[in-house]
Amino acid sequence: MKNILILLITGLLSAFSWADDITGRVVSVHDGDTLILLTPEQKQIKIRLAEIDTPEIGQPYGNQAKKALADLVFDQTLTARSNQKDRYGRVLAQLYLGEVWINAEMIKQGDAWVYRQHSRDPRLLAFETQAREEKKGLWALPESQRVPPWEWRKSRWTQRKHSPLLSNPPHEPVAPNAPAHK
User: Fold this and answer.
1) Domains of the chain, start order
2) Which of 93, 100, 105, 120 is the most buried (most CB within 10 A)?
3) Choosing from 25, 81, 87, 90, which is the catalytic residue?
4) CA distance 92 to 48
5) Buried b (16+ CB within 10 A) or exposed e, 41-78
6) Does the keyword Protease apply (predicted)?
């Protein structure tokens, strides 16, 4: 009985620590924390960098974060270590270029926040603190422009929800005399 219990616990622990390694060349950078890897089998895989969050395109520093990630990884062969997908079907991964941990590099350069809701690695918080103190990247912005992306997305969602123009489905006319789309 004791041996069965040990075997069961060992199996559960290994299941939780299991990770797939995906190797591929970066063929597209969507924003500061999302990219496309092309595997040797010519399969495109959408990767979301785990434990970090970067400003969205349209948000202050969003384009700079995208450029920072592209400068680090575009057309490079990376290893993505992952054990899950997000609700959008993207592979959540720790990315490595050789021995360089890309997720951490984005934090160290001041191009990303630690995504506290999803982060488990205390080193990332230390890297973020140092980037803040050194006013690197987004931390050099005026405080009023440093809105965490999760708060920015939430405020945009709330604005859309309460705006009559933005909440109409695209097939419904907005102007009173506009012809209806069929």
Assistant:
1) 19-162 (2.40.50.90)
2) 93
3) 90
4) 5
5) eeeebbbbbbbbbbbbeebbbbebbbebbbebbeeeeb
6) no
How many CB atoms are located within 10 Å of the residue 26 CB? 23
Is residue 117 classed exposed, middle or buried when 0-12, 13-18 and 19+ CB atoms within 10 A define those classes? exposed
132 is catalytic: no
Q: Percent of the chain having pLDDT more than 90? A: 68
Is residue 48 within 8 Å of residue 12, measured between CB atoms?
no
Phi, psi torsion values for 2, nearest 5 degrees: -60, -40
Whether 90 is catalytic is: yes
Of 25, 41, 51, 56, catalytic: 56
Confidence of residue 130 (pLDDT cuts 50, 70, 90): very high
Residue 147 CA to residue 53 CA, distance in Å, equals 11
The model's pTM is 0.76
Is residue 56 annotated as part of the catalytic site, yes or no? yes
What is the pLDDT, as a whole number, of residue 119? 84
**Burial class (CB within 10 angstroms; exposed 0-12, middle 13-18, buried 19+) of 95:** buried
Please tell me which residue in 48, 51, 105, 128 is annotated as part of the active site: 48
